Amino acid sequence: xxxxxxxxxxxxxxxxxxxxxxxxxxxxxxxxxxxWCANPESQRSEVQILHNEKKCVxxxxxxxxxxxxxxxxxxxxxxxxPFHCNGCFTCIKSCPSKCLNFEGEFKTxxxxxxxxxxxxxxxxxxxGGVTISGGEGMGQPDFVKELLIRLKEKGIHTAxxxxxxxxxxxxxxxxxxxxxxxxxxxxxxxxxxxxxTGVPNExxxxxxxxxxxxxxxxxxxxxxxxxxxxxxxxxxGIAHLLTQVGAKNVQLLPFHQFGENKYHLLGKTYAYEQxxxxxxxxxxxxxxxxxxxxxxxxx
Length: 299
Description:
This protein has helices at residues 61-65, 90-94, 109-117, 120-126, 141-153, 168-174, 190-197, 202-213, 232-245, 260-266, 284-292; strands at residues 4-14, 22-27, 48-51, 71-74, 77-80, 100-103, 105-108, 129-133, 157-162, 180-184, 218-224, 249-254, 296-298. The chain is α/β, with parallel strands linked by helices. A 9-stranded mixed beta sheet has the order 7-1-2-8-9-10-11-12-13. Strands 3-6 form a two-stranded antiparallel ribbon. Strands 4-5 form a two-stranded antiparallel sheet. Helix 9 (232-245) packs parallel to helix 11. The longest helix is centred in the C-terminal third of the chain and has 14 residues, at 232-245.
């Protein structure tokens, strides 16, 4: 029987998630709670209901329809309690203004592979493939393992965007199965890492070191976030860390606000609402610190 996983998006023609033209499979569930997260709908591992305030006519039909009493009005806004919602979609079906939607859908490995194979010609022509993203893809290890085996049978290049915050046994089994690890490195200081992401960084550094030592192709990537890791001192600390673990390359991902509206749809507060986006031209000095340390650094 084909393993099932919970997916919230399958994006074709991705060009920023590894080499060539790729299909990116976004899986729900993440152990981190980064304050700037661009995919807040990926954090919980369950199906989630989204509410579009702009479309809502406040008829309260959804409140009356919900069998789990998971919907209420708080501060004059429809609010869905994710801890009580069971994803039955009764509220979505009953909403006359179509202001409710959902994120997350269970799919079998067969279904995901079938979608990925639709673009196999593009992978072959461009040197692309399939990237697992999230959330944290390794958070659904059985699903990902079967998916990788099936993709490898077809000769498809595979990558994963990972937080690195994974138990040793799972990481050491799955990491070598990928052709490329796009490995987030968010901070060199464990206390600061926990303030920004909700977790310390020791396990992340341990897994990064293990992957490099075992000759797995790893690309460390730094999401450069204002008021978190965007200072030149932060860059020096991360450069020192990367040098210690033997990393030769790093990619900078300047902060953006592409995920802002998703927080509104989820009824969550976005901590970076008033923070301006960063651009490569803002980070020339930041980049030079890595280059001066002998690390190839690019955007």
